[in-house]
Backbone:
């Protein structure tokens, strides 16, 4: 999970209204549209779960962090997670100021930092800071037509796993193997993702994974229970709900999003057949940017607003009707 | 802007790739062959102050462990199920002043070995004539280890052999023969034991017996009723075997006091060490649990009627679940405080749990902090047994660690399948039939061992390959013992499905030492629980005499202290389990002292 949740809401907002001139998703353009302004007719609860609540994603991931740590002690340590958050925010502030000339909205960096703090497992301190810094830097460096290509934390985590295997592993089983954490994530995740109109992505991926795991069983002769096992663990639900739904790793049309989710599952299956342990991260790392790049290439260049610009949302975004 | 982007891009590439390139370029070369390492012997002796030479065969030890057998329904994952049982203990069973070795085997019908020290550098197996060989009788389970203590205070060390099966108790008849007393002693019928130890939990002068279960006690691995026997979670499993705390009545029998003592957890325990961690005079228990958090039981014997209270979380050691496989204690900074070394799993690119060095904080509250990373003893592969001991007699406790889980085809690995299923729901992971077939693949096999030398100021340096430790067997138990009464700690390693290795230790001249053999009178005669502090050259080192230490191992009863170049010891303080303190001023160095309580 990384800025996915934050950018998901932003993306959906912009998709709905198609603001002329706004073009690209501005990270941080989703200034809170609090009850009492234009959405005053919406109930507080609806607003809370609406696309306009820019605090929804940070709050959600904070809840996941607290829930996981207080029940299972899933973090390596509080201090390392705080380091990742701090490094992420600091890097965002520095690069925002340096590259755009303004201090950016920090929800995205906060989410990236927490994501790194949750997903990275290392006995050392430096990978947490390094992964967070790389995640944020990737947004500013790896760009095409003013869009960044990789989901930041997916890039950071994948790079660390690939380049520093002696020092870094990823979260896998630190939420146990029981049903209730999974159920909570499913309930919470489903509510959020359905509100954000992205549940079809999760569903496509889950169905694809189930079918392809059966195919893997046919190919390898391993028990189906073992090939499907990852999908039955709580940690995988975070990947399903909060990582592959990130608009930065997918495209804008509904069928395109389903196709990307399916392709992530296909590439993941290929990697799993090659016994690549971090297959889901690498599959998303490969498919996400490719899909976005194809979409950019096929679309007409248009005037865009830098993703990291702190343009007041009211200037470019309209609330959903 | 373009220049900014260029600089940013270069910085990004530098951060991304720089450390990786640097670490690959500066990666130390592994010494792979014994010939290569031998050629550097004199250089290494000068540099590190010690050198090891494997000399098992020359010493008359030709032994290879054979693993337990398992039900056919576990055949597809047999190497990881039958992955334990290679154990070794040091005991002077005949009281001739020379350390002997007892080695466990595990396959049905295989024989255990009792290697009597011939006092000339060689050993002779006398297990059969002593009555301690045939302990793997089909239907009675597989030996997992042995633990020695003089339970009836007659002066000779008796033995409990714990198994995945029926635990056995043998009485030592004056060092001439062992008599099986299991039935009359009141031991449980069946325990799939992961570890055991002796300690005087109620301070009555008789050692009590603690046995911790690994598999649940209703499981018979050789003939399963069903295949739902695996841990329900890789890190949060509570479906392991039960514990047994057996109080010694002093009348050659034992009473189960597990419930009233409060040691009722059902974790998958693999190692135990009993020591007085809070220094209140009562011996506490530390349990290293596989698939879960560690446990620390404080003995509130004086306050609440011999009850052990679990304080793992509040003491800081019970929060992060790992794969505990070893428990050893040592005063690593010569501060008079015992730290605990607990081993776990680290596999590059897959799972980096890291080992734990639970270091006691200096305040009054009992609290530990994991200092393994800071001190450089965190990464040791799939770590099993480890022991503290002053290997080079420089006055600081070093650390020897063995590792390696299943060495199959070195070109293959089972890690992918392992990680895939362990991430699944408990209903999947707990059923053995869902586990993919291993097909001869390795699972963290062929690993290099670690020997960390302690610099005494908070850092350890890994020198294993350089000083002659070049084997890559699947190591399990380690013991440290002065096998030739020459003031240096030799190392014996029991390897799963592998040979018993005896590493002779050659120490650079000019280093002094002192050793103590203790005999309790008011305390238990084995003096288990005695705390000895040696004061020399402005330093103080504490050692506590424990029974079980490490994994499936028991070190020599004798306590060994290296002194470095110092040839004078100011004083020695012995705090006996009875509570009496005995002070010895100016004992001779380079000497083995026999101390009797109160004399």
Residues:
């Amino acid at each position: 999970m990384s800025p996915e949740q934050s950018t998901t809401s932003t993306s959906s907002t912009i998709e709905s209204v198609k603001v002329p001139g706004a073009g690209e998703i501005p990270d941080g353009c989703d200034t809170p549209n609090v009850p009492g302004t234009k959405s005053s007719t919406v109930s507080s609860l609806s607003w809370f779960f609406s696309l306009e609540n820019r605090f929804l994603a940070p709050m959600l991931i904070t809840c996941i962090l607290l829930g996981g740590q207080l029940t299972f002690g899933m973090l390596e340590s509080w201090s390392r997670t705080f380091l990742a958050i701090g490094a992420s925010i600091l890097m965002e502030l520095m690069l925002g100021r340096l590259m755009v000339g303004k201090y950016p909205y920090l929800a995205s960096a906060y989410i990236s930092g927490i994501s790194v703090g949750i997903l990275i497992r290392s006995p050392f301190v430096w990978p947490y800071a390094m992964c967070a810094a790389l995640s944020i830097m990737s947004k500013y460096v790896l760009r095409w037509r003013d869009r960044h290509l990789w989901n930041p934390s997916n890039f950071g985590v994948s790079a660390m796993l690939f380049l520093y295997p002696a020092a870094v592993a990823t979260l896998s089983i630190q939420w146990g193997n029981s049903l209730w954490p999974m159920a909570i994530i499913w309930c919470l995740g489903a509510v959020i993702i359905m509100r954000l109109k992205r549940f079809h992505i999760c569903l496509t991926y889950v169905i694809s994974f189930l079918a392809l795991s059966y195919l893997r069983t046919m190919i390898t002769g391993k028990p189906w229970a073992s090939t499907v096992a990852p999908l039955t663990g709580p940690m995988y639900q975070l990947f399903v709900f909060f990582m592959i739904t990130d608009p930065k790793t997918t495209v804008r049309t509904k069928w395109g999003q389903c196709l990307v989710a399916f392709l992530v599952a296909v590439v993941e299956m290929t990697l799993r057949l090659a016994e690549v342990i971090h297959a889901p991260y690498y599959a998303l790392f490969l498919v996400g940017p490719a899909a976005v790049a194809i979409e950019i290439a096929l679309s007409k260049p248009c005037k865009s607003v830098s993703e990291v610009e702190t343009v007041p949302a009211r200037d470019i975004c309209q609330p959903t009707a | 802007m373009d220049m900014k982007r260029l600089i940013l891009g270069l910085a990004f590439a530098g951060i991304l790739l720089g450390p990786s390139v640097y670490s690959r370029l500066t990666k130390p070369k592994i010494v792979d062959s014994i010939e290569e390492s031998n050629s550097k012997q004199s250089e290494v002796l000068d540099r590190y102050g010690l050198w090891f030479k494997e000399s098992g065969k020359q010493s008359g030890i030709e032994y290879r462990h054979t693993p337990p057998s398992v039900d056919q329904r576990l055949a597809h994952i047999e190497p990881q199920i039958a992955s334990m049982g290679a154990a070794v203990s040091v005991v002077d069973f005949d009281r001739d002043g020379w350390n002997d070795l007892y080695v466990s085997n595990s396959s049905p019908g295989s024989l255990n070995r009792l290697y009597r020290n011939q006092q000339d550098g060689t050993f002779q197996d006398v297990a059969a004539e002593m009555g301690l060989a045939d302990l793997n009788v089909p239907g009675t389970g597989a030996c997992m280890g042995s633990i020695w203590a003089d339970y009836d205070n007659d002066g000779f060390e008796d033995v409990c052999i714990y198994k995945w099966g029926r635990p056995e108790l043998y009485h030592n008849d004056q060092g001439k023969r062992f008599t099986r007393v299991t039935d009359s002693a009141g031991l449980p019928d069946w325990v799939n034991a992961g570890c055991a130890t002796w300690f005087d939990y109620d301070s009555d002068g008789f050692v009590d017996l603690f046995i911790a279960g690994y598999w649940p006690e209703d499981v018979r691995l050789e003939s399963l009723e069903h295949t739902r026997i695996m841990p329900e979670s890789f890190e949060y499993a509570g479906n392991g075997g039960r514990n047994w705390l057996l109080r010694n009545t002093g009348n050659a029998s034992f009473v189960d006091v597990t419930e009233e003592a409060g040691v009722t957890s059902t974790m998958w325990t693999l190692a135990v060490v009993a020591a007085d961690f809070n220094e209140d005079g009562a011996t506490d228990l530390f349990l290293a649990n596989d698939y879960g958090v560690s446990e620390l039981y404080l003995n509130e014997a004086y306050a609440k009627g011999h009850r052990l209270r679990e304080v793992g979380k509040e003491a800081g050691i019970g929060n992060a679940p790992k794969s505990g496989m070893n428990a050893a204690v040592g005063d690593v900074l010569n501060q008079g405080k015992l730290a605990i070394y607990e081993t776990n799993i680290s596999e590059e690119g897959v799972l980096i749990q890291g080992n734990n060095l639970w270091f006691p904080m200096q305040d009054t509250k009992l609290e530990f902090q994991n200092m393994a990373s800071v001190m450089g003893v965190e990464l040791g592969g799939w770590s099993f047994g480890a022991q503290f001991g002053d290997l080079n007699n420089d006055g600081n406790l070093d650390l020897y660690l063995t590792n390696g889980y299943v060495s199959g085809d070195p070109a293959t690995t089972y890690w992918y399948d392992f990680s895939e299923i362990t991430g699944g729901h408990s209903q999947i992971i707990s059923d053995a039939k869902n586990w993919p077939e291993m097909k001869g693949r390795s699972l963290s096999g062929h690993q290099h061992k670690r020997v960390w030398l302690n610099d005494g100021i908070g850092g350890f340096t890994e020198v294993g390959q350089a000083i002659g430790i070049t084997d890559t067997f699947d190591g399990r138990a380690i013991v440290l013992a002065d096998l030739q009464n020459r003031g240096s700690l030799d190392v014996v390693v029991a390897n799963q499905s592998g040979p018993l290795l005896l590493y002779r230790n050659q120490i650079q001249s000019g280093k002094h030492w002192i050793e103590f053999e203790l005999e309790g009178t008011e305390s238990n005669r084995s003096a288990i629980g005695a705390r000895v502090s040696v004061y020399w050259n402005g330093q103080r080192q504490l050692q506590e005499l424990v029974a079980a230490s490490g994994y499936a191992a028991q070190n020599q009863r004798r306590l060994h202290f290296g002194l470095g170049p110092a040839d004078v010891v100011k004083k020695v303080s012995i705090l006996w389990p009875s509570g009496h303190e005995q002070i010895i001023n100016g004992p001779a160095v380079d000497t083995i002292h026999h101390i009797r309580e109160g004399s």
Summary: Chain A has one domain: 56-297. The longest strand of chain A covers residues 120-121. The CA atoms of residues 200 and 254 of chain A lie 8 Å apart.
